Amino acid sequence: MEKKIIKGFPHLKFEHQEYAEEELIQRSDEFYQMMNRRRTIREFDDRDVPREVLEKIILTAGTAPSGAHKQPWTFCLISDPKIKQKIREAAEEEERISYESRMTETWKSDLKPLGTDWEKPFLEIAPYLIVVFKQSYGMEGDEKIQHYYVNESVGIACGFLIAAIHQAGLVTVTHTPSPMNFLSDILNRPKHEKPYLLLPVGYPKKETFVPDIHRKKLEEILISY
Fold first, then answer.
1. What three-state secondary structure class fits 1?
2. Whether pTM exceeds 0.90
3. 162 burial level (CB within 10 Å; 0-12, 13-18, 19+)
4. Is the pLDDT of residue 115 over 90?
C-alpha cells in the first residue's frame, strides 16, 4: 500500500470505491429500505447467537469517527446469567423509582403508545447485553490522556452499533435507566469510564408485535438551501 509523509506523519493512500450514478442511487435506497425495517424490540427469544457475530458488530461500532481519533469508548459484552440478573434488578429499581416519582405525567403519557413500563425482563432473556461506556479521558499507565468531543464520538459509535445489529439480522432496544451508575459498580469499570447506553441483543420472539407508529417524512426532516 502506497504511503506518504504529510506534515511529518505517515499517511496511507485512500482507496475509494466509486459507483455509477444508477448503482449509487440503488445502493442508497437499498440501505434505507433495510434500515427502515429496523424496530425497537422488547420481546426477545433466549436463543444463543454466535459470539463472533457480536464481536464483529462491536468492531463495526469501533470504526466510527471520534475527536482526534481518541476512540473514547469501551464496549462490555455480557452473557453471564448472574451478571444479567444483577443488571436487571438494579435497572428495574431505578426505572420503578423513575415511573413513580421522577417522570412527569406528560412523559409517562407520551410513553403509553409504546407499551413500556419499569419492568425489563429482556435484560435477562436476551442472550447478550452490550453496555457502552464513554471514557471521559484515557489512561496510559498512571498518565491521563485528554479526550475530545466524547459524547458526540460515543453517540456516533452507538449509531454504527445499532445499524450493525440490525444488518446482522438481530434486534435491540436502546435502554438508558437513569441514573446508570450501578453499571459501573456491577461491571467494576474504572472511574474514567461512565455508562452511556445499555443494549440487549438477540433474536425477537417468534411472534412479536411492535407499536403502530410512523417515522417522519422527508419533507418534515429535510431543509434544502
1. coil
2. yes
3. buried
4. no
Residue 83 CA to residue 85 CA, distance in Å, equals 5
List the alpha helices (DSSP H) in 15-149: 21-36, 51-61, 81-97, 105-111, 122-125
- CA 1: distance to chain centroid? 33
The CA distance from 31 to 129, in Å, is 26
Instruction: Report residue 57 CA to chain centroid gap.
Output: 10
How is residue 129 annotated by DSSP?
E
The DSSP code for 102 is I
Joined together, the cell numbers standing for residue 176 give 438508558
Q: How far is CA 65 from CA 60, 161, 165, in A?
A: 11, 13, 18
Query: What pLDDT, in 10s, does the model give residues 27-46?
Result: 999 999 999 999 999 999 99
| Partner residues linked to 148 by β-bridges | 67
Helices (H), 62-216: 81-97, 105-111, 122-125, 150-167, 181-187
Pair 195, 177: CB distance under 8 Å: no
CA-to-CA distance for 223 and 16, rounded, in angstroms? 29
d(CA 167, CA 173): 15
Rounded Cα–Cα distance for residues 128 and 76 (Å):
10
Amino acid at 45: D
How many other CB atoms are found less than 10 A from the CB of residue 157?
26
